[in-house]
């Protein structure tokens, strides 16, 4: 009976210290991927807006340092700088940037899907461990009655 209770405690510790921590890490990484996906979707939407609604350019304010802003006009929007990762920027045309955004979204979505599947497996492992605890807990009263 004490061995059974010790095994239950051991399974509970495994759930709390290993499985739930793994699940938290997976959720954190999935959230990071989702944020990056949203940034690329936003980039694509912005590029499409520029292309369709602002073909002559636009006015904006630019921070020139120490939170001092200067009014600027962007008239030539045929090329933009895109962060391709690790703070490396490449100059691209608007169609190239849109294609790049589409490709990055597909890649990140696939990577996120892999993590989601792993998250589902971790949840299943937690559920199976809880079922094992429940079965062992049901065995304890049956053994006491003998």
What does this structure look like?
The protein is 71% helix and 17% strand. The chain is built from 2 helices and 4 strands; from the N terminus they run αββββα. It has a two-stranded antiparallel sheet. Strands 3-4 form a two-stranded antiparallel ribbon. Helix 1 packs antiparallel against helix 2. The N and C termini lie close together (12 Å). The model has no long low-confidence stretch (mean pLDDT 89).
**End-to-end CA span:** 12 Å
Biggest sheet, strands in spatial order? 1-2
Main pleated-sheet profile: 2 strands, antiparallel
Helix content: over 70%
Strand content: 15-25%
Oligomer: single chain
Number of strands: 4
Report Rg: 27 Å
Order of helices and strands: HEEEEH
Count of helix runs: 2
Summary of the model, kept short:
With 146 residues, the protein is of the alpha+beta class. The chain contains two helices and four strands; from the N terminus they run αββββα.
Q: Which terms would index this structure?
A:
about 150 residues; about 70% helix; 2 helices; 4 strands
List the helices and strands and how they pair.
Elements: H1 2-53, E1 58-63, E2 69-74, E3 79-85, E4 88-93, H2 94-145
Antiparallel strand pairs: 1-2, 3-4
Helix pairs in contact: 1-2
């Amino acid at each position: 009976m004490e061995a059974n209770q010790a095994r239950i405690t051991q399974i509970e510790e495994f759930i709390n210290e290993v499985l739930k921590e793994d699940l938290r890490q997976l959720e954190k990484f999935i959230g990071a991927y989702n944020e990056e996906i949203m940034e690329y979707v936003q980039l694509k939407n912005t590029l499409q807006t520029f292309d369709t609604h602002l073909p002559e350019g636009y006015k904006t304010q630019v921070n020139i340092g120490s939170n001092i802003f200067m009014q600027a006009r962007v008239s030539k929007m045929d090329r933009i700088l895109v962060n391709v990762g690790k703070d490396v920027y490449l100059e691209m045309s608007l169609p190239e940037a849109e294609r790049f955004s589409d490709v990055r979204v597909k890649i990140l979505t696939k990577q996120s899907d892999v993590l989601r599947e792993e998250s589902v497996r971790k949840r299943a492992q937690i559920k199976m461990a809880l079922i094992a605890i429940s079965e062992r807990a049901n065995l304890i009263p049956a053994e006491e009655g003998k």
